[in-house]
Design goal:
The complex is a heterodimer of chains A (114) and B (112).
Chain A lengths: L4 E3 L2 E4 L5 E6 L6 E7 L6 E7 L2 E5 L7 E4 L6 E5 L8 E8 L8 E2 L3 E5 L1
Parallel strand pairs in A: 2-11
Antiparallel strand pairs in A: 1-3, 3-8, 4-5, 4-9, 5-6, 7-8, 9-10, 9-11
Chain B lengths: L8 E5 L4 E6 L7 E8 L6 E6 L4 E2 L4 E4 L5 E6 L8 E9 L13 E6 L1
Parallel strand pairs in B: 1-9
Antiparallel strand pairs in B: 2-7, 3-4, 3-8, 5-6, 6-7, 8-9
Classes of the chains: A mainly beta (114), B mainly beta (112).
Chain lengths: 114, 112
């Protein structure tokens, strides 16, 4: 257990529905990241926050995806109008700012769109 | 971030040292080498990182060549629980690109 908590761990949803994942980072970690991982591939970067500011978004983050970190603590990742191609594991990670500070990952949230 | 090259798979006998190589020939002077592993269906687990010097912690040792173009992760006494996909990643410390670029990693299988 790294201390990064993600909920729910598993979600099955019908195509077209909206889903939201929550991430609670390690306390006092000011940087928070979202990654996506499909079967057989390594994790791919989606976006990151420094405190409440979203500083970078990948082109993978389509208009149907939105991430927030309203108070600089927990974060949510919402996917609207889900598609089958959204089926993946969504990983959250966090770290303290500092050149050597390590990024720690949560256990991930599995999404299956049927 | 520099790209890395790893063998797709390796086997190692239980109890022996597992040596996982990684090439990062285009690494820049301010880029760190990080190793993570991922056991099936779990999030990536941090193992170790280094800049220039060799590093050791309770999990593993990291050997970085003098020219920094390659490195080796060493698991000194592999156990069955070390079976996982191992990722070698290079990234700038704090003021560069924040994202970790994972490749497909090395699938390490520990043989009983």
């Amino acid at each position: 257990d790294t201390g990064v908590s993600q909920n729910p761990r598993h979600k099955i949803t019908k195509r077209g529905q909206n889903v939201t994942f929550r991430c609670d980072p390690i306390s006092e970690h000011n940087r928070l990241y979202w990654y996506r991982q499909t079967l057989g591939q390594g994790p791919e970067f989606l976006t990151y926050f420094q405190n409440e500011a979203q500083l970078e978004k990948s082109r993978l983050l389509s208009d149907r995806f939105s991430a927030e970190r309203p108070k600089g603590s927990f974060s949510t990742l919402e996917i609207q109008r889900t598609e089958q191609g959204d089926s993946a594991m969504y990983l959250c990670a966090s770290r303290l700012r500092g050149p050597e500070n390590t990024i720690y990952f949560g256990e991930g949230s599995w999404l299956t769109v049927v | 971030d520099a790209k890395t090259t790893q063998p797709p798979s390796m086997d190692c006998a239980e109890g022996r040292a597992a040596n996982l190589p990684c090439n990062h020939s285009t690494i820049s002077g301010n880029e760190y080498v990080y190793w993570y592993r991922q056991i099936h269906s779990q999030g990536p687990q941090y193992i170790i990182h280094g800049l220039k010097n060799n590093e050791t912690n309770e999990m593993a040792s990291l050997i970085i060549t003098e020219d920094r173009k390659s490195s080796t992760l060493i698991l000194p006494h592999a156990t069955l629980r070390d079976t996982a996909v191992y990722y070698c990643i290079v990234r700038v410390g704090d003021f560069g690109n924040e994202k970790l670029t994972f490749g497909t990693g090395t699938r390490l299988t520990i043989i009983p």
